[in-house]
């Protein structure tokens, strides 16, 4: 499909630079089938679902994956994207034309890495020096990798260390937050428990590729970056049981959705999964694992807007986003939410 079909005009003032306080006071736009759109708050979620429905969250934790350094006199920026092994990461490089294979980048706090290999997409494999775990090195030298549309407007600060982590975050490895879950608070979880809404967690380490623009003119020519994820056998069994008894599986975020769909066969059965996924969901895709999606509002012509268009229909999502813009919803990672039930 032509990528321009997924374009829309977004006023820059609709881009959120901070999350709502408290988190569950963010607005939530509900699109349920062919019914009229309705405006709510995230805190209304327990009353919008049915007892026995299950929400699926991503428990990945964002690491300080943004690094600034030098190669000689040249300034080099690195955003880690995906772990290769204990000491090596694939990274997107700023000022990459000043970096060659085999050269050393000196980052802050005595941390350094060798640019071991350049990939076809322009990224590099970075091999970190020393014996300390790379996670320890990143705590010393790295900063939180805020999305570029926020980082371009303000610097990262202490608030972001907590604001850009979800309440579920425990598995280190993401370089971008699963932002749909940023809206959840202990109070909201208590209310969901009381309402009989279940929850499950999987792990998908979100990579920096989630922010990359689609440069191809046609979706068939776009290459997704792989991300590592895991669903255990017990969780797969429980999710299958949810749908067998007639309840719904609602993915909280596109990251959870992509992993669930990767783990589910044509027969609609979710199975244990561990490994990389580069699934790219566009209109025409037949969803197998989920019955709905809670997600923030995404960039024009992005893979994520294509995903929600696949779920709800492109014209329907254009109408959803037009309503959100007119109704002053806040967009992107720190923005408001939507609940999409096809």
Q: Would you write up a description of this structure?
A:
The chain is an alpha/beta fold and 342 residues long. The protein has two domains: 3-62 and 162-341, 3-Layer(aba) Sandwich (QueA-like), CATH 3.40.1780.10; 66-142, Thrombin, subunit H. It has helices at 45-48, 134-141, 148-151, 158-163, 186-194, 233-244, 254-262, 303-312, 314-326; strands at residues 27-32, 38-41, 54-58, 60-62, 66-71, 74-83, 88-94, 104-107, 112-118, 124-128, 171-174, 198-204, 227-231, 249-252, 273-277, 292-296, 337-341. α8 crosses α9. The longest helix has 13 residues, at 314-326. The protein is globular, with a radius of gyration of 20 Å.
Major β-sheet strand ordering = 2-1-17-16-14-3-12-13-15
- Strands, count: 17
| Fourth-level CATH superfamily of the largest domain | QueA-like
Specify the helix fraction band: 10-25%
Judging from the principal axes of the Cα atoms, what is the shape?
globular
Low-confidence stretches: none
If you average the pLDDT, what whole number results? 95
The CATH architecture of the largest domain can be named as 3-Layer(aba) Sandwich
How far apart the termini lie comes to 21 Å
**Main β-sheet description:** 9 strands, mixed
Structural class: alpha/beta
| CATH fold category name of the largest domain | QueA-like
Q: Report Rg.
A: 20 Å
What number of domains? 2
How many H/I helices?
A: 9
Order of helices and strands: EEHEEEEEEEEHHHEHEEHEHEEHHE
Strand-residue proportion: 25-35%
Question: CATH class of the largest domain, please?
Answer: Alpha Beta
């Amino acid at each position: 499909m032509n990528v321009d079909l997924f374009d829309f005009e977004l006023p820059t003032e609709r881009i959120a630079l901070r999350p709502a306080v408290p988190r569950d006071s963010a607005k939530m736009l509900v699109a349920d089938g062919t019914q009229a759109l309705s405006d709510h708050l995230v805190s209304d979620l327990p009353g919008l679902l049915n007892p026995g429905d299950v929400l699926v969250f991503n428990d990945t934790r964002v690491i300080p994956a943004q690094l600034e350094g030098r190669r000689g006199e040249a300034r080099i920026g690195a955003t880690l994207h995906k772990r290769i092994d204990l000491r090596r990461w694939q990274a997107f490089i700023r000022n990459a034309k000043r970096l060659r294979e085999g050269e050393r980048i000196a980052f802050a706090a005595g941390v350094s890495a060798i640019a071991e290999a350049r990939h076809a997409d322009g990224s590099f494999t970075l091999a970190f020096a020393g014996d300390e775990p790379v996670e320890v090195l990143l705590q010393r030298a790295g900063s939180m990798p805020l999305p570029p549309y926020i980082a371009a407007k303000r610097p990262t600060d202490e608030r972001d260390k907590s604001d850009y982590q979800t309440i579920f975050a425990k598995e280190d490895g993401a370089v971008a937050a699963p932002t749909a879950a940023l809206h959840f608070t202990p109070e909201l979880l208590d209310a969901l428990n009381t309402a009989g809404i279940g929850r499950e967690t999987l792990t998908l380490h979100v990579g920096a590729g989630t922010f990359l623009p689609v440069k191809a003119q046609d979706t068939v020519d776009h290459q997704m970056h792989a991300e590592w994820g895991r669903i255990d056998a017990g969780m797969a069994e429980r999710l299958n049981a949810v749908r067998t008894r007639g309840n719904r599986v609602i993915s909280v975020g596109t990251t959870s959705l992509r992993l669930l769909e990767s783990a589910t066969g044509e027969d609609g059965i979710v199975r244990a999964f561990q490994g990389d996924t580069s699934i790219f969901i566009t209109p025409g895709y037949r969803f197998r694992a989920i019955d709905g999606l809670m997600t923030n509002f995404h960039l024009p012509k992005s893979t994520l807007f294509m995903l929600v268009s696949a779920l709800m229909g492109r014209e329907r999502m254009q109408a959803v986003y037009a309503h959100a813009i007119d109704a002053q919803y806040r967009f992107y990672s720190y923005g408001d939410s939507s609940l999409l039930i096809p």
